[in-house]
């Protein structure tokens, strides 16, 4: 799965749709950036925009949106209820998949430097990107709002991290940072009494609830602030309210960092507290989007509670999460629309095709999908078979001593399967890039040089994809060997097919590596890749030979067959 980052810029315009559309149009122009939501507020005169994509695309889309906002919004005329200090008031980067917070901080700094230098807008870094502790909190950075900016000029404390140390009357200033992903999540109760919901909210939120004396009065400190008893969870904000539309009370929750306090753990605590107070949780509701990782965690959590193996497919984990959290109680829960990674999947992916259509696409007169995609598919099927054997061994009375091993095998096989499924499409994409490079013009010497350069770069990339497929095969072969040796004997043939599929995937991937590198000019890279490819193939061949021997031996032992009956 590629790196995915989310960006949620807030623009100081929520009433003029033409202005809003002009800004968001800049985002949709960038390939690799997907606009997910545009939420304007008339009273706040502010629009919250959400888009996601690969880091470089998101960075470029953010810059263009900020540039357009500086062009179409005049902060000297802005009025609204929400605190603000700039045309683009705030622009955070949020890690979603396969990207670290440090990488998002780097994106924030790159964007800040560009906005400051190219657009002459003062930029303050905040949250994880903050240059000092005093600027970590957005409220502190924005203190005094737009109207305070002229008085900041010349004050060393308020010197911007990027851009001019002066007052930009039209665009104001912009806060750019990196923060954790926020999940807006509501838990539904079988009561209309919002006091019950508020009680649970107090118990679960980090802030907690005020302490009271024997007379019920709030206990305060020397400065008059309530003394609080902390709630159960860090990085959780919550209130209780009643929703007339649903005729139910809800615990409305902001999970500020789901990796610290995941939805399923908070949900179960709400269930426990509701039961303690004499009522019940009937389900929950997701407002906005959720990362796939959070759903997979929930699915694994509830399978473990049932004593079931967790090495199952992604679809099953998502289904288990939806069912266990009651996410479809109030309305149907469409995973394709609510899970971020699913929303940004591009159309036309090979892995989304039915089997028959995939086969027909391979059999057509187009060179892609071709051998590289088929090799990755064979590897994915091998991993899938290994996971199946482990799943159908786990928990069986005769194999209980291998439960831990089978669960580990199933989970690892699922991880490898997911990587190979992505490689099915990546192989075809890499081939398309080579074709695009070959189609570049070559009339002038400069054009020829650029075309040759692009062909070399894309061809090396095309070789790297099947090489990655091959590099996964020794581990899958080893998993198949273990599954064949100690797995459920009724599935011995399945483990054997997994071993054969590994061998096919490995040799098929190697063919595609070799056919690509022969067109490269880098002799050192070619020789290095050849050596590594042969080494990997030797490992796969050695292990799959062992798988074959184990499978045939077990078949004869268990079934009482004579070897020469089926193997000549």
Helix amount? 40-55%
Largest sheet: 7 strands, mixed
Report the average pLDDT across residues: 91
Number of domains: 3
Strand composition percent: 5-15%
> Termini distance?
44 Å
CATH class membership of the largest domain: Mainly Alpha
Q: Give me the secondary-structure category.
A: alpha+beta
CATH architecture tag of the largest domain: Up-down Bundle
Poorly predicted parts: none
SS element count, helices: 18
Radius of gyration: 29 Å
Instruction: Tell me the name of the CATH homologous superfamily of the largest domain.
Output: Formiminotetrahydrofolate cyclodeaminase monomer, up-and-down helical bundle
Q: Could you tell me the number of beta strands?
A: 13
CATH topology category name of the largest domain:
Four Helix Bundle (Hemerythrin (Met), subunit A)
Shape descriptor = flat
Which characteristics define this entry?
alpha+beta, Alpha-Beta Plaits, 14% strand, Four Helix Bundle (Hemerythrin (Met), subunit A), 568 residues, 52% helix, Formiminotransferase-cyclodeaminase, Chain B, domain 1, flat, 18 helices
Describe it:
This protein is an alpha+beta fold and 568 residues long. It folds into 3 domains: 4-178, Formiminotransferase, N-terminal subdomain (Formiminotransferase-cyclodeaminase, Chain B, domain 1, 2-Layer Sandwich); 183-343, 2-Layer Sandwich (Alpha-Beta Plaits), CATH 3.30.70; 350-566, Four Helix Bundle (Hemerythrin (Met), subunit A). The chain contains 18 helices and 13 strands. The strands form 3 sheets. Strands 1, 2, 3, 4, 5, 6 and 7 form a 7-stranded mixed β-sheet that branches. A 4-stranded antiparallel β-sheet has the order 11-12-8-13. A hairpin with a 4-residue loop joins strand 3 (33-41) and strand 4. Helix 1 (17-28) runs antiparallel to helix 2 (55-72), helix 8 packs across helix 9 and helix 13 packs antiparallel against helix 16 (492-517). The longest helix is centred in the last third of the chain and has 42 residues, at 445-486. The chain is flat, with a radius of gyration of 29 Å. The two termini are 44 Å apart. The relative contact order is 0.06. The model has no long low-confidence stretch (mean pLDDT 91).
């Amino acid at each position: 799965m590629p790196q995915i980052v989310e960006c949620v810029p807030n623009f100081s315009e929520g009433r003029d749709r033409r202005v809003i559309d002009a800004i968001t149009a800049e985002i949709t122009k960038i390939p690799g950036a997907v606009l997910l939501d545009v939420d304007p507020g008339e009273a706040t005169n502010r629009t919250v925009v959400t888009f996601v994509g690969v880091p470089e695309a998101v960075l470029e889309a953010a810059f263009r949106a900020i540039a357009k906002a500086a062009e179409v919004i005049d902060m000297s005329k802005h009025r609204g209820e929400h605190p603000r200090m700039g045309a683009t008031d705030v622009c955070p980067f949020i890690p979603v998949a396969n990207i670290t917070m440090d990488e998002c901080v780097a994106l924030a700094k790159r964007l800040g430097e560009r906005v400051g230098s190219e657009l002459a807008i003062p930029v303050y870094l905040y949250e994880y990107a903050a240059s000092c502790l005093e600027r970590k909190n957005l409220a502190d950075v924005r203190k005094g709002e737009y109207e305070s900016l002229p008085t900041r000029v010349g004050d060393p404390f308020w010197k911007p991290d990027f851009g001019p140390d002066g007052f930009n009357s039209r665009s104001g200033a912009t806060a750019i940072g990196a923060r954790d992903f926020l999940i807006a999540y509501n838990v539904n109760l079988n009561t209309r009494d919002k006091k019950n919901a508020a009680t649970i909210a107090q118990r679960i939120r980090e802030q907690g609830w005020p302490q009271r004396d024997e007379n019920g009065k709030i206990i305060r400190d020397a400065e008059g602030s309530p003394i609080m008893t902390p709630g159960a969870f860090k990085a959780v904000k919550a209130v209780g309210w009643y929703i007339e539309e649903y005729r139910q009370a809800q615990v409305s929750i902001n999970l500020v960092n789901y990796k610290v306090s995941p939805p399923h753990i908070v949900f179960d605590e709400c269930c426990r507290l509701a039961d303690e107070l004499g009522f019940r949780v009937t389900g929950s509701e997701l407002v906005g989007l959720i990362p796939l990782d959070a759903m997979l965690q929930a699915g694994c959590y509830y399978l473990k509670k049932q004593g079931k193996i967790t090495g199952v497919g992604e679809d099953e984990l998502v289904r288990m999460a939806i069912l266990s959290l009651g996410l479809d109680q109030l309305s149907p829960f469409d995973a394709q629309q609510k899970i971020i990674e699913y929303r940004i999947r591009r159309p036309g992916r090979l892995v989304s095709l039915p089997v028959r259509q995939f086969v027909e696409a391979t059999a057509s007169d187009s060179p892609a999908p071709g051998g590289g995609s088929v090799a990755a598919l064979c590897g994915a099927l091998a991993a899938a078979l290994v996971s199946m054997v482990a799943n159908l061994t786990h928990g069986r009375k005769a194999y209980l001593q291998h439960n831990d091993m089978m669960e580990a095998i199933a989970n690892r096989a699922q991880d490898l399967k997911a990587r190979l499924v992505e490689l099915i499409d990546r192989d075809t994409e890499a081939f398309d890039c080579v074709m695009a490079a070959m189609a570049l013009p070559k009339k002038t010497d400069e054009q020829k040089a650029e075309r040759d350069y692009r062909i070399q770069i894309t061809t090396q990339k095309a070789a790297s994809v099947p090489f990655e497929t091959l590099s996964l095969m020794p581990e899958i072969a080893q998993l198949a060997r273990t599954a064949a040796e100690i797995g459920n004997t009724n599935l011995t043939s399945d483990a054997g097919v997994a071993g054969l599929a590994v061998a096919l995937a490995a040799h098929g991937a190697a063919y595609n590596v070799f056919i690509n590198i022969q067109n490269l000019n880098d002799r050192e890279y070619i020789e290095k890749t050849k050596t590594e490819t042969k080494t990997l193939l030797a490992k796969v061949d050695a292990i799959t030979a062992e798988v074959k021997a184990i499978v045939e031996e077990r078949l004869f032992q268990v079934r009482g067959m004579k070897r020469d009956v089926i193997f000549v």
